[in-house]
Design goal:
Shape: globular
CATH topology: Rossmann fold
Number of strands: 9
CATH class: Alpha Beta
Number of domains: 1
CATH architecture: 3-Layer(aba) Sandwich
Structural class: alpha/beta
Helix content: 25-40%
Radius of gyration: 17 Å
Strand content: 15-25%
Largest sheet: 4 strands, mixed
Order of helices and strands: EEEHEHEHEEEHHEH
């Protein structure tokens, strides 16, 4: 499991249409400074693809505009950064849940002491004793985040899910009783 919560840039800020994760030392002065000092999301995708040896992986991105690196049913190719998406979804059982669509911001709440996405993600990961599938986690997060951001901010934030084409159910955790049964053997 990979989880990243940072600021993100829209593709329109870069001359090559690249989406970036904004780091502590990113210089936002202009497109060249952004390129030189931010982390391209494609590089994050490459690290996950080439360094993580697990057959199943779940990636959670809580950044503005993170939906640019994912694809979901109904999205057309102009909304998806295809090379990035191809890298992220290679392999068996790899899935990405992004906090917002490509043109959307990801909102935070003082009341929740952080982002709506992260708050609802943690709650959803605890479903079914920690053994909920990524699909079920996504359904819960998408519904709760969309509803709450609209109610609190009168804005849209729509989480996005992408999975590899060969993706079986991806379950991040296991039930505590499963662990106990394996320890006894």
């Amino acid at each position: 499991m990979v989880y990243l919560s940072r600021h993100g840039s829209p593709r329109e800020k870069d001359t090559a249409g690249v989406n970036y994760v904004i780091t502590n030392d990113t210089d936002l002065k202009d497109a060249d400074s952004l390129f030189a000092t931010a982390l391209p999301m494609v590089e994050l995708a490459d690290v996950v693809r080439t360094r993580i040896q697990a057959r199943r992986a779940a990636i959670f991105l809580d950044t503005c505009h993170s939906g640019a690196v994912t694809a979901a049913a109904g999205f057309n190719s102009s909304q998806v950064a295809s090379p990035i998406f191809d890298r992220l979804t290679q392999g068996v059982g790899q899935g990405i849940i992004a906090s917002s669509e490509a043109k959307e911001k990801s909102y935070e709440s003082d009341k929740l002491q952080g982002g709506y996405f992260t708050y609802h993600l943690v709650r959803a990961l605890r479903q079914d004793g920690g053994a909920a599938s990524v699909d079920k986690v996504f359904d819960t997060v998408r519904d709760q985040v969309s509803k709450q951001v609209l109610a609190d901010w009168k804005m849209h934030q729509t989480p996005v899910l992408s999975k590899s084409t060969q993706s079986p159910d991806i379950v991040i955790g296991v039930r505590p009783e499963t662990l106990a049964a394996h320890s006894a053997n």
